[in-house]
Specification:
heterodimer, A: alpha/beta, Rossmann fold, 2 domains, disordered C terminus, B: alpha/beta, Urease, subunit C, domain 1, TIM Barrel, 9-stranded mixed β-sheet, 5-stranded parallel β-sheet, 27% helix, disordered N terminus
Chain lengths: 314, 436
């Protein structure tokens, strides 16, 4: 079985550090005038997206292309899934075409784990249900590492993750990865937006800790959850948990503000992030390319692979 | 094999077994002639055409009765048919099974009940007792014709697969059932609390990122129905209890003298929610696998008699439906062929009590105590199971008689195996294999 990336737990702390170190090299490639290396030439990466996600799909596609891999994209809208084909048949059919890695996004928690059992190709979890989004967690960790110059680890780093933890694969993976790297993560949400059982400290009082944190991580509050009696209204959510101008003024000068996107302006954030010195939301997107390149190279790069400049090897 | 399936009057001689029934345990041989027990005693000699069954090292008991089987026919014949399900039942030692009404069309009228009985008679492997729905189409809005169905012998009514949500309708159902000699069996689940749920609400579901199934959803309805029984005096049976709280509610109701009975499944006395960590839908079931503490409480409920019967909730599903992600796959697992083996392996109870929970106690609840679960005595109907209580084995899915393969017990050591089953005076399972 080829290696896969399904959860950050699978990587372990040393595996996370390895990817982050590798991402430094990839970031260097990305700064070149011609940001492309032949590292994965001849490899085929198939993006299999059963759930809409333009940004994650584009990020993976760009990452694969910068490593010279061939890419295919399978989006559910134009697929035979609509003709009743099962997930297993879909995967086995594409695998039969010769694929080295599947990048899988699925609305069902656990789907990439099932896919991993049906193919010998590598499987990269690009987000499954409420369960996991390991490359998001890695790019979040990488962004903190670069922005706060924390190459050795996150010991003592105080992080607050705010919002709909319960339905968030980002919260699950990012909280886990940051904790593995040594950070002290606090979950901030009303009880309705937390999973039934949590193993991290939590609070409903954002205002009690906002002045004492190094990283404020805001989650997307989804309009479509309003039918489930989780919070009375978005207005009340903003009042208790939104990053307002008052709260922004209380942040420590060095504190980072992060968001996995897409942002609901006026809900979880009412200030313009462009005016916040600590906002690294755009850097998260940029770093996503380097981190996904690192993940692809880590899984698919063999001895023949090279990180050197394209021209040097051709 | 020559005298099988012919219904002639040649006999069966079961030799050297331990006879275990409601009256106790003793050794002895049993002769069956013409569908009935003709002779019980030591050293019975085989007569000319007698089919001899060697029961040494085995227990001979009344046939098992399953209060909770999904045979899938009519409607989902790709998963199971009445014939394949009956064969699985016979191999599990069952001589009667209650067939749940969540078929398509629903077993809510005389025509569908008749069809199920005809198919069962054609298979001739065990008695199939169709349960009927409490509400038409299991829609939860209009009562099914209880009296019309009771008149053709239906004794158990249930909307199994879901609970009757409307408390007013359930009150009326209990009231209207009075005097008809029937029992209403509830699948206890307040649906509003389990929307989208795929597994027990707790630590494991939080980690896996899937919607949880709170124990409360079951316990609220158990509590409601106990109070409705107190109010109306009607009889209620609680299907597949899975939580410690449910067991305690039924324990107290029985202490109050209320006419309630309950069942538990083999999987709820042996498996817990941690098995879902790999997102394998084989372990998705309704009600869900709970915590170790719940498993212990259900076992204790069986041991002290709070829970009357072991019932399989045998729920076959075709491979392609169970291979889906956890939230899309249907709930349910096989149970008929492994029920005895799981029960003996996982229950710290005297064997006689386990057999009681598999045979005469469910026979009474199903309303068939006149022909199943009977003492092994001269003149009684010959519905018998011969099993080796000490045989250790593992289930091999490909060898199951069920049309489906969704057993959760692969790799689980089982103890106790059915060797022979005699249904209505005919050997339908011999040496662990079905004869028809």
């Amino acid at each position: 079985m080829t290696a896969s990336l399904l959860t950050v737990e699978d990587l372990g702390t040393s595996g996370i550090q390895r990817i982050l170190d590798l991402a430094d090299h990839m970031a260097e490639v990305n700064r070149r005038p011609n940001p492309k290396v032949p590292a994965l030439r001849g490899k085929t990466v198939c993006n299999v997206f059963f759930e809409d996600s333009t940004r994650t799909r584009l990020s993976f596609e760009t990452a694969a292309k910068r490593l010279s891999a061939d890419t295919m994209t399978f989006a559910v809208g134009q697929s035979s899934v609509n003709k009743g084909e099962s997930l297993r048949d879909t995967i086995e059919t594409i695998a039969a075409m010769g694929v080295d890695a599947f990048v899988v996004r699925h609305g069902s928690s656990g789907a990439p784990l099932l896919v991993d059992g049906w193919t010998t190709a590598s499987v990269i979890n690009a987000g499954d249900g409420w369960h996991a989004h390991p490359t998001q967690a890695l790019l979040d960790a990488y962004t903190i590492r670069v922005a706060l110059n924390r190459t050795a680890g996150f010991d003592g780093l105080r992080v607050a993750i705010v919002g709909d933890i319960k339905h968030s694969r980002v919260a699950r993976s990012t909280a886990t990865a940051l904790t593995m790297l040594g950070a002290d993560v606090t979950l901030v949400a009303p009880r309705t937006l937390l999973p039934p059982v949590i193993d991290l400290p939590s609070t409903e009082a954002l205002d009690d800790l906002i002045g004492d944190i190094d990283v404020l991580y805001l989650l997307r509050m989804q309009q479509e959850r309003m039918g489930e009696a989780l919070v009375p209204s978005l207005r009340e959510y903003t009042m208790r948990f939104g990053l307002t101008a008052d709260r922004a003024a209380r942040l420590a000068p060095h504190a980072l503000v992060m968001h996995p996107g897409p942002m609901n302006r006026g809900v979880e954030i009412t200030v313009d992030p462009a005016e916040l010195p600590g906002a690294v939301i755009t850097q998260q997107v940029t770093n996503g390319i380097a981190v996904r390149m690192a993940v692809l190279f880590d899984l698919l790069g063999g001895e023949r692979s090279s990180m050197s400049d394209e021209k040097a090897t051709t | 094999m020559s005298n099988l399936n012919t219904g002639d009057t040649s006999g069966i001689l079961i030799t050297g077994g331990r006879l275990l029934d409601e009256t106790g345990e003793r050794s002895g041989d049993v002769r069956v002639i013409d569908g009935r027990i003709a002779e019980v005693g030591d050293g019975l000699a085989a007569q000319n055409d007698d089919e001899v069954i060697d029961a040494s090292a085995c227990v001979v008991s009344p046939g098992f009765v399953d209060l909770h089987t999904h045979l899938r026919e009519p409607g989902k014949e790709e998963a199971e048919t009445i014939e394949t399900g009956s064969r699985a039942a016979a191999l599990g030692g069952f001589t009667a099974v209650v067939a749940m009404p969540n078929t398509d069309p629903t077993q809510d009228c005389v025509e569908v009940v008749d069809f199920v009985r005809q198919q069962a008679a054609r298979a001739g492997l065990c008695e199939v007792l169709p349960a009927a729905a409490i509400t038409v189409g299991r829609n939860g809005t209009q009562l099914a014709p209880f009296a019309e169905l009771a008149a053709i012998g239906v004794r158990i009514f249930t909307d199994d697969g879901s609970g009757v949500q409307d408390p007013l309708l359930m009150r009326r159902a209990f009231e209207y059932s009075l005097g008809l000699g029937i029992t209403l069996a509830q699948h206890c689940e307040v649906a509003r609390l389990t929307e989208g749920a795929v597994m027990h609400e707790g630590e494991c579901c939080s980690r896996l990122g899937v919607p949880g199934w709170p124990s409360l959803a079951e316990e609220l309805m158990v509590h409601r129905d106990i109070e409705l029984v107190r109010l109306t005096g009607a009889r209620a049976h609680f299907l597949h209890l899975s939580t410690a709280g449910s067991v305690e509610l039924v324990r107290r109701a029985k202490a109050d003298g209320l006419p309630v009975t309950a069942e538990a499944t083999p999987h709820h006395i042996s498996l817990n929610d941690e098995l879902l960590a790999g997102y394998d839908a084989t372990f998705k079931v309704n009600p869900p696998l709970r915590t170790r503490a719940d498993v212990d409480a259900v076992r204790a409920g069986l041991a002290d008699g709070t829970i009357d019967a072991i019932a399989t909730d045998h729920a076959p599903h075709a491979r392609e439906t169970k291979e889906q992600p956890l939230d899309q796959a249907p709930p349910g697992m096989l149970g008929l062929e492994t029920s005895l083996g799981v029960s003996i392996a996982h229950l710290d109870m005297p064997l006689a009590d386990i057999v009681a929970a598999l045979s005469w106690k469910p026979a009474a609840i199903a309303g068939v105590a006149d022909r199943h679960g009977r003492p092994i005595q001269v003149g009684e109907p010959a519905n018998l199971t011969v099993f080796d209580p000490d045989h250790e084995w593992e289930v091999v899915p490909a060898r199951l008689a069920s049309k489906s393969r969704n057993t959760p017990f692969v790799g689980t050591p089982l103890r106790g195996k059915v060797r022979h089953t005699i249904f209505d005076g005919t050997v339908v399972v011999r040496d662990g294999g079905a004869t028809r």
